[in-house]
């Protein structure tokens, strides 16, 4: 577990695992296939979110002495990922491509804020910079809820903001997952899936690059059920139908990005992101977990961060 925590500090990025071909998994609610800018809709809200990043956030992370020093996509330093593109025109696509940079897109669950607040490499943000990053994340969540959300979190009685809904559902989901269902679904299949001659656990056994894939089921389960950053690799919250209809879904987007060489993961070995042993296991684990949620048999939240 200590190695995993060290890996979180060392690697602020996403590298999805790779896999062999398996039978088609049972269809499970997952990211809507037609997603626009940043994974939200392709409407004005999504464009506004991108503009917010390019105008206010990219200058922060690309400034000399900041994130770009270790995380430049042209050559990240050590065992870290390159989420800062040298060219501003590539900055947005590169940044949002890393799940462990944006986390669950909430100010309380996005490592772009939380890691710095925890003292990552002695870096700090000014209050103005934190405000700009928070405004961008809020814009991203608002764009994702553009399909009919209600609350904005601005004080309207009974309203729930996209960020609040995301945090609530993520916590609830953690308590619905069980070690028994994790084992039944064979989630350790992620560890032994292959790309070229390497298994996923070769690079991700200790949680490197924001992904955990180990053939030790208790370690694997403990990490994704207690650490929301690692959970976000496998599960996300769908806001596309509005805040009132928000639900946890399988995070197919995170695996699609690396499996099909989408920027910024152009150097990752290709694999089938929808038809693999790992995805089959993940879909089954989702179904079993959702059954607990539907039956009202979930335990208390287990997240520790």
Tell me about this structure.
With 305 residues, the chain is mostly helical. The chain has one domain (2-295). Helix content is 47%, strand content 4%. It contains 15 helices and four strands. It has helices at residues 2-10, 44-61, 68-71, 88-96, 99-102, 111-117, 127-144, 162-176, 179-184, 189-192, 200-204, 217-226, 228-234, 252-259, 277-295; strands spanning 194-195, 198-199, 235-238, 247-250. It has a two-stranded antiparallel sheet. Strand 3 and strand 4 form a beta hairpin. The longest helix is centred in the C-terminal third of the chain and has 19 residues, at 277-295. The two termini are 15 Å apart. Mean pLDDT is 79; it is low at 4-27, 30-37 and 148-157.
